[in-house]
Write a structure and sequence with these properties.
This protein is α+β, with helices and mostly antiparallel strands and 470 residues long. Helix content is 36%, strand content 24%. The protein is built from 11 helices and 22 strands. Strands 2, 6, 7, 8, 9, 12, 15, 16 and 17 form a 9-stranded mixed sheet that branches. Strands 19, 20, 21 and 22 form a 4-stranded antiparallel sheet that branches. A 3-stranded antiparallel sheet has the order 3-4-5, with helices on one face. Strand 15 and strand 16 form a beta hairpin. The protein is elongated and about 120 Å long. The site of magnesium ion has 4 residues, from helix 4. Magnesium ion binds next to helix 4. Its main location: cytoplasm. InterPro entries: Kinesin-like_fam, Kinesin_motor_CS, Kinesin_motor_dom, Kinesin_motor_dom_sf, P-loop_NTPase. It comes from Goodea atripinnis.
Amino acid sequence: MSDLHCPQSRVCTAGRLRKHCEAVRVVVRCRPLSRREETAGCENILEVDDKLGQITIRNPKAPPDEPMKVFTFDSVYGWNSKQRDIYDDAVRPLVESVLHGFNGTIFAYGQTGTGKTYTMQGLSKDPEKRGVIPNSFEHIFTQISRSQNQKYLVRSSYLEIYQEEIRDLLCKDNNKKLELKENPDYGIYVKDLSSVVTKNATEIEHVMNIGNQSRSVGFTNMNERSSRSHAIFLVTVECSERGPDGEDHIRVGKLNMVDLAGSERQSKTGAKGKRLKEAAKINLSLSALGNVISALVDGRSTHVPYRDSKLTRLLQDSLGGNAKTVMIAAVGPAHKSFNETLATLRYASRAKKIKNKPRINEDPKDALLREFQQEIARLKAQLEEQGMLAKERRKRRRDSKRLSKSMAGMEEEILWEKNGDVWKMAEEAEDGRHCLIEGGQEKASFCYGIQEANQPICTDGRCHRYWDPI
Ligand SMILES: Nc1ncnc2c1ncn2[C@@H]1O[C@H](COP(=O)(O)OP(=O)(O)OP(=O)(O)O)[C@@H](O)[C@H]1O
Ligand SMILES: [Mg+2]
């Protein structure tokens, strides 16, 4: 597909910027026949060729000579595929990019019951069956633990779009409807969405499990645990590193992991009442997503209807914007789902033509790490200042103690010397007892020594003080 087919072709083909364009990567995963489908005698109508990246679909109602439809994707995964294969092949490079400061989005799309939640979440108790989201946690924190000259801050948020309302899955009051906002600095964001800083894979997995408990899930005839909302697990990775200019630079990568609700037909799901209402909203937002994809790949379209649904607004950057995107299209092999599977393959095929413009988010204004670093620097300075003052105070106290000690020492020494002399004198003198007489009155206490009696203490002749023998 040439760039001319995408509405961003002017940007894509405009010399220097051309290299920033990157197609959405689309992979398809086919789950095995379910027990119910096996019991119902369903036939397999799909052939998956993982070497060629091709998936072939046979119309069960077509005459045998009608050629089968073949679709080619970046990768295809058959019913034997392992969760690890999908992660390592389709997701790992994208998460790697997020660690380098790119935005990344992985979204699972497909009809109800085809394995979107299985692929994104998987089964947490079985390490082999853990899905994309928990595998990304392990990947992110393993990479961080191996890094040497960088500082990282990882935070996560979890939201769902239920019946066109955004709900915070990490907030106690998750019935509160959150608003979508747009800001020239941060782009589109959800106001008041909680975000949790996590230090390791266990902590972030705990955050995910808390959110999962609040997610809207319900029974339908097509899936016992059908997702009734679109869920987005958002991981923001901030990395600070000293640049060649000697300054610290921050890169921020945002990873959106999206488990969409599946498109569904009321005749097959048997949805009624609340379930039917949910289904109507789900289908509406999925068709808005389809319209955005069509507009993006249709060269004549000048308007992309991102504003038609909350889902498309939230995914705006991931579809034609500043992000690297992987779409995992999930399909089932049963002949009964021929129409839905064909529709998914067409949808996915169209998405392959979307061109994104990913770039490294360097030193963005909303980097929390910078805020934290500034706060730490401020507190450090405060502590240092307090420390200096305390040190100064301690020093002054020490000096004055030392001074008074040494003065006391000196006094002691003087006294000691005096006493020594006095005692020496007292020993030497037989009648060495004297007292101080001033104006004929006894003034000082007795002392011993050989002061010469009747000799004035002062030598200027004006003194009235004499040592007098007792
Ligand atoms: N690759 C797979 N291997 C084994 N079982 C799978 C696979 N994919 C899906 N399943 C099983 O199929 C059932 C439906 O899967 P899941 O709930 O993931 O579908 P979904 O696409 O999320 O549906 P919905 O749109 O209704 O939420 C589950 O029981 C799941 O364990
Ligand atoms: Mg699901």
